[in-house]
Amino acid sequence: MDKGALLNSLKKQGFSDEIISAFEKVKRETFVPNNLIGYSYDDVSLPVEQGSTLSQPSTIALMLKLLEPKQNQKILEIGSGSGYVLALISEIIKNGEIYGIEINKNLAIKSKSLLSNNSNIDIFSKSGEIGLSDFAPYDRIIVSASCPDMRIPFNLLEQLSDNGILVVPVKQSLFQIKKLDGKTEIKEFPGFSFVDLKTGD
Known about the structure:
alpha/beta
């Protein structure tokens, strides 16, 4: 599939102009290994390195739709990999603060280099299971790897501001968790496959 075909597919799926424009402007081939560049615009997940993957574009688009990113927000991505989703978020919100956590040091270094022109993005190489309290609270948190149960998402809610949104895969489902007046509103979207969130030092 070429880029135009992918963009048409996302349009047919009803994604917003903002999301489609971000996919149009951010070059996915920049964030995939050289030997897989020919598959950059196929709607498939691609291996990056050491078990990390770049999720398929339609899944990323859905996650961004559920995330509802807006101008001037503070957004955290856990499991930021090669930096593709960070770049898409930056393109959508233009202004604001964006933070990425990536446990794989090589990927963290590579993504910092790839995104060096994006002055609003900071990437940290550490385990993401406890979030990034240094810059909390966040307006939005997105987790790009699957959690084994709801414990990690519920812990991350402590770093989410009121009226904030957390988008997180748990096992084979995507969850959108909204924090409204101290209460949580949870929606589940089953039928997804993500690599497991790596935890540790």
